[in-house]
Amino acid sequence: MAPQLSPQPTANRNHREKQDIAMLHRLASAFAISAEGFDSVAADFWNWQSPADFARLSIERQRATSELRSIARRSGPPPQAAKMWLAGHLRNWLAVRAALSSGNGDSVKREVRRAERFFLERCEAAHERMPATANREVVRRHTGSIRRLLKAIGEG
């Protein structure tokens, strides 16, 4: 008799995703992310087409989650750069997910580049107004995150 696969890995992944969604919901509320934007991203976690799609962004998602937890632990109101960092990641997850679901490699590239341009333009505008070196560092780190995201899906 052939051994049966255990459903445990899927159950663990679903549990992690529920925890991540709860954390993102708290951060989105704290950072005043729009309800529509958050709902799209929350739905995103539940709609991966295959384990391979999920794995493509798994490392980047872990990095982003770690960074978001770090931002959440900081005392005082989050800096504008951190708000934009979170919004940029949420937008990128959504754009990449939409492109992956289409199954079209050109669509993946187009959607991610559009999200990248949108975020970088906002970062550049905010960067000019930022007196604090720490805020500039948050922006610098995020631009690197976008580039890692592009590499993760083979478009960078």
From TrEMBL:
Sorted alphabetically, which InterPro entries does this protein's record hold? Ferritin-like
UniProt name for this protein? DUF2383 domain-containing protein
Its source organism is Botrimarina colliarenosi
